[in-house]
Amino acid sequence: MIESSNAFSSENTGGMLYPILHFLTGVDPVRFEVWHHYIRKTGHFVGFFTLSWLLFRSWRATLPAIDLRAWTFQWATIAWLMATFVASMDEWHQSFLPSRTGTFHDVVLDSSAALISQIVVWWFLRNRPWLTVRNAY
Known about the structure:
Blueprint: H1 10-25, H2 29-62, H3 73-94, H4 104-125
């Protein structure tokens, strides 16, 4: 995972993002630090939201449902657990890199994004009797 490497440390992404945001918005270096933090956390959220959704789709294709429903708690649980495991391992890996820090807060953010992804999938598929595993998006 390149995002977990030294290349995507806060110092390196700040050096890439500041000129772009300064050009587009005129943001000064002090305000940029706040924006930089939220941009990085948004990246965590989007990445693990997407991972969880893709994991749900893969488990839906792998594990058969008895009645061909488009959603089961089993698929959602496995997807969430796997995304949380990846988040934990990612932060653990970052704790060994000199320019990165592995934090429990990021694991909580990432696993929350994965859970929200599963809620969105459930909400989208909950009242779709015409939608089965064979023809689900």
